[in-house]
Each structure stands twice: as structure tokens, then as C-alpha cells.
Amino acid sequence: MSPSRSVLLVGEGNFSFSSSVCKLDSESGSSITATCLQHQEDALRHEGAAANIQTIKDSGGTVLFEVDCTKLGECALLKGRVFDRVVFNFPHCGRKSGVKKNRELLKNFFLSCVEVLAEDGEVHVSLCNGQGGTPADQPKREWHNSWQVSAMAAEAHLILSGVHHFESDNLPSYKSTGYRSQDKGFHVEKALLHVFSRSTPYTPVQIVQMEELVEGETVHYNIPAELSDYVFRFLCSDSIHPVKLVQDFLLEGLEEHWPVTMKEEPFPLLISAKRLQTCGHNVDSLQCYWIHLLQKELTSHVQEKDAVCSNTKAALPTTKVDRVRSKGTESLQPVCCHDFNLEVDEGLYMLRPSLLPQLEELLINKGDVSDDAQPQEENDKSSEVEGNKKEEACGGCNGASSSLFGISGVVFRSVPISLWALPAFHEILLTGVFSLENEPIKLIGHELEALLSPYGVSIVTEEKGLHLVAQPMGLIGKVFASDAADGNNHVIVSASLNLDLLAVLLFSLPDWRLLWCHDPRFLKQFSFRPPPGTSFQSFSLYPESFSFDISFWTGPAWEEKRFYAIVREASCGTVEQVKLIDTFSHPDLSQTSYCYRLIYHSHTHALSHTQALRFHKELEVLLSSRLQVTIR
């Protein structure tokens, strides 16, 4: 046990565990408070209880009787106290109580103990093998026949942080008791100790107002509500974020063959539809997040409304990015439209679906690119490793005549909800001029395959280039030719890679959503910059998933794309899959009914059945109000 910890033990029987802890930690300065539910007279009837209680008191500990572990906040003797650790060994309702009663005991205990638990405290629960219902139990019971310990803890916003063997051998004077309200002990030979800690709270939906300079004009707009948590991830040169570590790994590997210069200046998240068309990038317009400019809305209003809007604008901070917390999701207005025609609506804007338009804009003036290839600025130094030396050594590497120039940043795709469909991710885009005779697409593809094949990435040849694929996520990057660099034998070749999916692969992350979490326990594992291939150790073990169906008649405002957006918003991103189960078109009413199955699952937050149901009910409200559907 760590020094100077305050420890609360509940549900003690003969106090032999508390006594053993006091003996082991006699010099650590830990403060021990041991409690039991029984009256003092009843507790003393247990064999050895009197001697154990005396040992605790002699060690400076406290012994309390008649303490209900499901009502710790109501205990007068514990008022105002918080504990670094709360311990409950082998909870049991007594006699022949079934799994449901013991689940209820666990849930009520967890809800109670968080009232006396320090913010960074831990809850320790020891269970007999098989009771917990987690994969750590061997053999594992059927979930419905277990105590579902992780799900019960989630009801109190606790996550399972660790599972260890219950080391009774280290406690020689410990003797379990109380099995079915008897002096008979529990089977502790393969028992497991479950360690729980607090989950970070869910981030409330926010209206994020942006001000950016786009194509020479200052524009104001709102980020779609479902993306409010996928915007602010800036990877500075000393960042330890796994996405940045993957980017550094790629650049270091490629710099062994070509000098690489990364442009570090920030680029606007917004681009115009006309700009995307000009670059000729093959982006599905249905996957674009179309944005209404607040600025254009202001200029179209009458004078009376102008006055109201100008007052609202004046009330906002004049910072580059303004966050305005909503008082409720009903107050949020749609800030993006989902049905535009690229050929007709050239004056419209979208959140960038790719970095290619911005990279091509940088490359318009080749003089600027050649200047940037030299390490003149501090930010460029971090991305250019011995660039001048390598340019001399690699200028003719494999017949290539160019260095690589690149940018990276977050891009956005309005996609259906599935396991590996990312609405926002970090893209790295690299480009260079190569001689055609050296087959540059294959050349770059070969180097990327050499770097990434140990992690399951393979190359697939397509008509217009190469695809980098991996299982189970599918496409993670492309290598393609953009245009002829001159009229003869040179070509511009680009490589686009999804850094988020690569981070999932290279660090064995269970879920891409971890890359956007704000829990300090996530980045802590990367503080020493582990190399690719280092497996991530989840700080939330065995999170339970919950499945809910939703069925409704559609109204005139129905759009499936908006449906997915509302699901992401209402669930705070906890829905990992949406499956269409059934459709039915009424022959007389000209209406269509849809039935979807939603899978709620989170590796970043505590997700209980109660919380998932709360999200689901909120979804029904938002769908009814925004899409005018009729819930069945």
C-alpha cells in the first residue's frame, strides 16, 4: 500500500483483513478505518475478531460498527471525510441470495462509496472466480449469470482500471468469513481483485464559433454540434500524442530516401466548394460537411435583425475561437446543411474533407516551396532532419529529382456510423516531383510498405495509383499522381495517409475514439514516446456494450445523413455502430418506417445501462423535433 493513504474497509467480518493490512503497513503512515454492518456484540462473536480489532486500534486505526456500505454518505462518523481507497472484500447479500440481489448490492455500494472517495482515489472489490463476469475470470461465466461488476460500477461513473489475483498468501493472518452469513469462508484460491477509478465526465454539447481567414475573406461560422469535440487537436513539435508519434515515425523513415519539409503554419478548417472543384480532388459531395456562414446570414437580414445580431456578436469574446456552452441541446440550431450540389452552389463552404486544396495552393509558387525546403524557421527544424545533408545524398536517390513537401491536419467526413468510419481524423499529405522513368508511385508505395507492413498494412494496386489497406479498418491511405510537372518526363506524386487509423494499428488501440479523449491517463502512456509496436494498455477494461433499437415514421424533413449527425450529438459519441434492421413503406399513407439498431460502447468513459438509455431517450427527442419523425 502506498505511503500516507487513507483507507476505508467496508463489510468486514472478523476484521482479519484489516488487521493484516495494519501489520503490513505499520510504517507507511496509512490511516486505516475498518467498518462492518453488524452491531459490536454480533461482530465480536466471530472467531479472532476481538484480537483483530485490538491490533487495528493499536496500529492507530479506527473501527466502526453498524456502517451500511450502501449508505456511506449518511454515516455520521464518516461525514466530511474522503478516502484514497475504499475496499470491499467478497461482498454478499447473505444466505442463498441470487445474482440479481448481489448485483444490486454492488451497484448501491458503488453509488455510495463515490461520496467518500477522493477524486484520484480507487475502489477495490474482491470477488470469487467467475462472479465478476469479465474475461479475467477463468472460466468465464455467462454474462447474465454473473454479478456484472464493471457494469454495476459504471452506474457510479467508475471504470475498471485493473484486475489482479487476490493475494491472500501475503496476508498470513487473513481468514475469510461470512459466506451465506456463516463463519464459513469464501473460496479465495482463484479470487480476483477488481480496481476501479473515476471516469472523466462526458463533455456537454457545445456551439463552437470559429473566425478564420478563408481565401482573403474573414468568415464566421459554427462547427456542427456533433463535431464539437473533434476540432481542437493541435500537434505541436513536442507533442506526445500518438498521432504525432506516428507522423514522426513516417517522416523519419521517408527522410532516409528523400529530404522532407513539413509546413507547420495553421490552415483554415473551412474551404469553398469552388476551391475544391478547382483542385480536381475526387471527394464525394455527400460526405462533405456543408457550412452556412454566419457572416452571410448577417448581411441578408433587415436592419432590425441586424441590430439584434450585432449585439449578440459584441457579447462574444473576440478570441480566434469562441466556445459557447448551450443550456440544452434543444437550443442548438443546425449549422450545416446536408444537401448541396457542387456544380450549382460554388459560393458555398465546407469543412475541409482533404488537405489537397491547401497543399496545392502552397505549391502554386514553386519559389515559395524551394524557400520553405530550407530550415529557416524554428517549426520547420523539427520536421526537417538534416535536410541539407540528405538533399545532397538523396538528390538522385533512385533517380528521383525532388524532395517531399507536406502538411498535416484534421479533415472531416460526414459518414455513416460504423466501427471504422471516422467523422474527423488527422491526414498527412506529402507530394514531390519525380521522373516518370523511375515509376515514382511504386517507389513511394514500396517505401511506405516497408515502414508499415510489420503492422499489417499492405499495398493494393488500383487503376489510378496505390491503396494502403489494413484489417479490419480497410483503406488507410493512397499514393497517386496529381499532374504532369512539365511536358516531358516528370510527374507530381502525392501520398495521403490517415494518421488516426495508423495510430490505432501501430499502438494496438481498441478504439479510434481514444485518440480524441481528454483523460490524462491516455496520454500518460505516451509520455516517454514509445516506439511503434508498443501495445496500449487500456485504462478502462472490459467496458460493456448496450444495444437499443429505434423505430419511427419519417417526415418531410427526413435525411439519413442528418440522422447520423443527430445520433453522434445525442449520444456524445458513444454509439459505435448503427445498423438498419428493417424498412416498411405504407401503401396508403406514402410514409416509410425505419428501424435501426444502435450499439452504445465506450473505451473512454464509464457507460452504464442507465446512461446509455438516457442518451437514447435524448435521441428520440432530437429526432422528433429536428427531423419531424414519429417514434413508434
Low-confidence stretches: 297-335, 367-401
User: Judging from the principal axes of the Cα atoms, what is the shape?
Assistant: elongated
**Percent of residues in helical segments?**
25-40%
Major sheet: 7 strands, mixed
Count all strands and give the number.
25
What structural class is derived from the secondary structure elements? alpha+beta
**Cross-sheet strand order for the largest sheet:** 3-2-1-4-5-7-6
Report how far the terminal alpha carbons are from each other: 54 Å
Residue share in β-strands: 25-35%
Number of helices: 18
Rg over alpha carbons: 30 Å
Oligomerization status of the protein chains: single chain
Overall pLDDT, averaged? 83
